[in-house]
Amino acid sequence: MEYPEDLQYTEQHEWVRREDATRFRIGITDFAQAALGDVVYVDVPEVGTEVTAGEPFGEVESTKSVSDIYAPMSGTVVERNGALADSPERVNQDPYGEGWMIVVEASEASDAPNFLDAAAYRERTLKESGEDR
Predict the structure, then answer these.
(1) Would residue 122 count as lying in a domain?
(2) SS3 sequence, the chain?
(3) What is the CATH number of the domain that holds 21?
(4) What is the pLDDT of residues 102-114, one digit of tens each?
(5) Is residue 114 a part of any domain in this protein?
(6) Beta-bridge partners for 25
(7) Would residue 73 count as lying in a domain?
């Protein structure tokens, strides 16, 4: 399981890469994609769509289930990974690279919430999976 140190993480298993003061690249974590299994469909919003912190902005369908993807902050979608429509397996193959989902321009710089760092997220996933015993 990968937990890149340069990323921040949410309780809902999204990763966030701060690109500047108000711009954030978002995807789902290695832990999340492994739990989902083979991803067969990804639905992400169009550029210009407003997203709200804590609310679903899209979904990932796998051979096991369908799961919502949650916005870590409120703002406007300024980029989307259109390649996922034809190649949803990128989420499994490279969740922190080619498997990214959207880029959000946050409503305000202060709108970026407090995220988990890699160590805190690793600890959370170990507890969730029962591997911390």
Answers:
(1) no
(2) CCCCCCCEECCCCEEEEECCCCEEEEEECHHHHHHHCCEEEEECCCCCCEECCCCEEEEEEECCCEEEEECCCCEEEEEECHHHHCCCCHHHHCCCCCCCCEEEEECCHHHCCCCECHHHHHHHHHHHHCCCC
(3) 2.40.50.100
(4) 999 998 755 556 7
(5) no
(6) 17, 103
(7) yes
CB 41 within 8 A of CB 61: yes
Digit-coded pLDDT (tens) for 12-44: 999 999 999 899 999 999 999 999 999 999 999
Which neighbouring-strand residues pair with 14? 28
Instruction: Identify the domain containing residue 81 by its residue range.
Output: 8-107
Number of domains in the chain: 1
Of the candidates 93, 79, 86, 97, the one whose C-alpha atom is nearest the C-alpha of residue 41 is 86
CA distance 101 to 79: 8
Give the tokens for residue 10.
């949410």
Handedness of CA 61, 62, 66, 70 (dihedral sign): negative
Mean pLDDT of 101-127: 86
